[in-house]
Design a protein that fits this description.
Layout: H1 3-26, E1 30-32, E2 37-39, E3 46-48, E4 60-63, E5 66-72, H2 80-93, E6 103-108, E7 114-123, E8 130-139, E9 145-152, H3 159-168, E10 170-171
Antiparallel strand pairs: 1-2, 2-10, 3-4, 4-5, 5-9, 6-7, 7-8, 8-9
Length: 172
């Protein structure tokens, strides 16, 4: 075997080793673009990449537990609580949820990122079925509000998914 081939094989092994180490360290972390936010929802999520068409970011995560999406909110929304109120009022105005259906709490991720989590029970615009919706609103590196939404059915709602989002959400 020639020297060049040996060098190429060694370099390929080093690169592969680095990729494997990064994969082990980052687990199943997914970055939403262009929101520049990431999270690790755990195993079992299918990553659906699509062109980002603002306000919807890419990718979407889909599993039996529901769907996770990211929305990059309007530029003028830089205060997290104001963004939550605007989203809530839009949901009530559209008839997706009643005004008294919301539960709201502050949260802080493991990386120190602060935000507001609100949830509600409502109906799907597509087929009228019951849904459970969780919105985790925080700010990205450009101080722009981002909504990470976890939408599921009441039967499939997962406390571990909610906890994973609250713990692992971070700015990239």
């Amino acid at each position: 075997m020639g020297t060049r081939l040996k060098v190429r094989l060694v370099l390929a092994c080093i690169v592969l080793g680095i990729i494997l180490i990064m994969r082990l360290v980052n687990g199943s972390r997914v970055t939403f673009s262009p929101a520049n936010m990431s999270l690790d929802a755990g195993k079992g999520w299918r990553i659906v990449k699509m062109p980002a068409m603002l306000p919807v970011c890419s990718p979407s995560l889909i599993s039996q537990a529901g769907t996770i999406n990211a929305l990059l909110l309007d530029e003028e929304l830089t205060e997290v609580k104001a963004a939550a109120e605007k989203l809530k009022s839009g949901l009530v105005a559209s008839g997706k949820a009643s005004a008294d259906a919301f539960q709201l709490e502050d949260f802080t991720t493991a990386s120190g990122l602060a935000g507001v989590h609100f949830s509600y029970a409502g109906t799907s615009a597509k087929n009228g079925t019951s849904v459970r919706s969780h919105h985790f609103i925080t700010r990205n590196m450009h101080s722009r509000c981002v909504d990470i939404s976890y939408i599921t059915s009441p039967e499939q709602e997962s406390a571990s998914v909610i906890a994973a989002i609250m713990k692992t959400l971070r700015v990239e």
